[in-house]
Amino acid sequence: MNISIGSNSLYSQSINVVSDKIKTGQLQDKLQANNGTDDELMEACKSFESYLLTQVMKSMEKTIPGREDKGPYLEQFGDFLYDEYAKAATESQSLGIAQMLYESIKRNA
Q1: What digits encode the pLDDT tens for the residues 73-84?
Q2: In whole angstroms, what is the distance from residue 15 CA to residue 13 CA?
Q3: What is the DSSP track for 91-106?
Q4: Which of 23, 56, 74, 89 lies in disulfide reach of 70, CB 3.0 to 4.6 Å?
Q5: Is 5 within a domain?
Q6: Could you read off the pLDDT of 47-72 as tens digits, one per residue?
Q7: Does residue 4 belong to any structural domain of this protein?
Q8: Is residue 91 part of a domain?
């Protein structure tokens, strides 16, 4: 018997949901901690922007026709690729979401 675990399997989907919940919880904890420094707050804002971009990229991929047959490497490591793209975009500050969030939190604190 041959068992294959692809990206569409229930196991892979469950892992992704649990991973997303953990990341969301960590971000909430960072943002709710009022005793952090400005650098820690900015890092939490960057983490949020990176997480947001990753989710957007994953959703966008689902809209591409013919992407069901991605190949074994992209099935296994596609999420890591989107994470790295999101981190690179966040570090280059091309969107500025982290900066806007940081300024908003500082203004309302």
Answers
A1: 777 788 888 899
A2: 5
A3: HTTSS-HHHHHHHHHH
A4: 74
A5: no
A6: 999 999 999 998 988 888 877 677 77
A7: no
A8: yes
Percent of the chain having pLDDT more than 70? 67
pTM tops 0.85: no
> Which residue do the tokens 């596609």 mark?
78
**50: burial class by Cβ within 10 Å (0-12, 13-18, 19+)?**
buried
Domain with 71 in it: 10-108
What is the count of structural domains for the chain? 1
Asked if the structure places residue 92 within a domain, the reply is yes
Which H or E element spans position 48? Answer: helix 38-62
Q: How far apart are CA 78 and CA 71, in angstroms?
A: 10
User: Whole-angstrom Cα distance, residue 51 to residue 48?
Assistant: 5
**Residue 73 tokens, joined:** 């490497």
